[in-house]
Design a protein that fits this description.
Helix content is 0%, strand content 55%. The protein is mostly beta strands and 95 residues long. The protein has one domain: Domain of unknown function (DUF427) (Metal Binding Protein, Guanine Nucleotide Exchange Factor, Chain A), CATH 2.170.150.40. The chain is globular and about 35 Å long.
Length: 95
């Protein structure tokens, strides 16, 4: 079971993660949505498509751009549509 925490709260936990390029992508239903705030940031991957980002907010503390997801990935990355990954240097990851 993979789990992501930050500032003492569980952000996501699942045994149904997809691993792409060494990153664990968590299914949307495994997220504790109370802590995710969409931000106006995107990046483009040549084979996955356009990624959107979240700030993580816990008790008023903001972890900027700590998580990302592909709302409409290219076909090669269709298995991670809507799944969320985290920057390992910004959160605590356990597996």
């Amino acid at each position: 079971m993979a789990k992501v925490t930050w500032n003492g709260v569980v952000l996501a936990e699942s045994d149904q993660c997809e691993v792409v390029e060494g990153n664990q992508y968590f299914p949307p239903e495994s997220l504790n949505q109370d802590y995710f705030q969409p931000i106006d940031k995107t990046t483009v991957c040549g084979w996955k498509g356009t990624a959107n980002y979240y700030d993580i907010v816990v008790d008023g503390q903001v972890n900027p751009g700590a998580a990302w997801y592909y709302p409409e990935p290219k076909s090669a990355a269709s298995n991670i549509k809507g799944y969320v990954a985290f920057y390992r240097n910004k959160v605590t990851m356990e597996s």
